[in-house]
Amino acid sequence: MLMAYSLTPAGPVALPDSAVPQDDPRASWIDLLKPTPEEDRTAEKFLGVSIPTQAEAEEIEFSSRFYSEAGGQFLTVSIVAGVDAGTPVLTPLTFVLSRGKLATVRYEDFAAFRQFLVRSTKVGDVCGEPVGVMVTLLESIIDRIADVVEKTGSEIDRLNREIFTRDHRGRIASGKRRERKLEGYLVRIGFQNDIVSKTRESLASIERMLQYVTAGGVGQPLLRKADGPSIKLMARDVRSLTDHLSFLSNRATFLLDATLGLISVQQNEVISVLTVAATILLPPTLIGTVYGMNFVHMPELDWTFGYPIAILVMVASALVPYFILKRRGWF
């Protein structure tokens, strides 16, 4: 999908779908979402440079993400998307600046883009030219990432409370249902940790881009003087979010270890119960086995009260180890 915008003092204004960018002098920014080959060719005519393919945009080398070619500047960052849908992915977003025009190439429908279009109407003078659009769009992306970090932190807090829930006696709950819940917590912790790792990678990509544009690109200054404070503020926000994500990553790792530990404790309790049961049943089993050998010369077989005495001995032999193990706190 290709959307063309005219950059006005009031912010970006969408042009009609039928407008061909190179034939409309008002077009200053085009946004490509999952572009078709035909849309790529249209964008290339509009900018006068080649548009990188998705495979090229996904390369991780610094030189493949930030470079100058044929008078155009190419900047690619990795953005985390699909968090709300439960399928977080890292996807490239490419900015192409050429001939005083801007193109954005993306392969996911970022929530940050929708937020940017709303925000741009309030800071229209800033978004009146391509570089301003790029800077403001980056600010919206960082704001969106901050929302993701905040939501992830809240979910990790919720997991912490649920995992360490205590009963009315102040003990951590146990039982079969509890064990199934712990297995579910492992999945939820893994999901949150996946979001944390992808978000950190996205912030690292944005930080590299900010360093590149601050340095002035490859011999071609990219920023206006007025963009300096915004870039510095974004850099501070990125560092702050990265530090907070490190904290969340440590918390997720702790919860993962704690959950695995609780599962091991519950499994050990099951083994302990089975061990105690085997220990309790061993003496009566031994006695019953002895009197089941059916030897001819067994004087107890002629006793009038031999059978009830044997039963009592078996019960006593089970109760004695039971009370001994109970006293020692084995179960």
Describe the structure.
The structure is a single chain. By secondary structure, the protein is α+β, with helices and mostly antiparallel strands. The protein has two domains: 2-267, Beta Polymerase, domain 2, CATH 3.30.460; 269-327, no CATH class. Helix content is 56%, strand content 15%. A seven-stranded mixed β-sheet has the order 2-1-3-7-6-5-4, sandwiched between helices. A hairpin with a 2-residue loop joins strand 6 and strand 7 (101-106). The protein is rod-shaped, with a radius of gyration of 34 Å.
What is the structure about, briefly put?
The protein is an alpha+beta fold.
Rg is 34 Å
CATH class assignment of the largest domain? Alpha Beta
Shape: rod-shaped
Structural class: alpha+beta
**Count of DSSP-assigned helices:** 8
- Average pLDDT over all residues: 80
Unreliable segments of 5+ consecutive residues: none
Distance between the termini: 66 Å
For the biggest β-sheet, the strand order reads 2-1-3-7-6-5-4
Give the number of domains.
Answer: 2
As a percent range, the share of helical residues equals 55-70%
Question: What labels would you give this structure?
Answer:
331 residues; alpha+beta; Beta Polymerase, domain 2; 2 domains; seven-stranded mixed beta sheet; rod-shaped
Helices and strands in order:
Layout: E1 2-8, E2 11-14, E3 27-33, H1 37-47, H2 54-57, H3 62-65, E4 66-69, E5 72-81, E6 89-98, E7 101-106, H4 111-120, H5 130-163, H6 176-214, H7 228-290, H8 306-327
Parallel strand pairs: 3-7
Antiparallel strand pairs: 1-2, 1-3, 4-5, 5-6, 6-7
Helix pairs in contact: 4-5, 5-6, 5-7, 6-7, 7-8
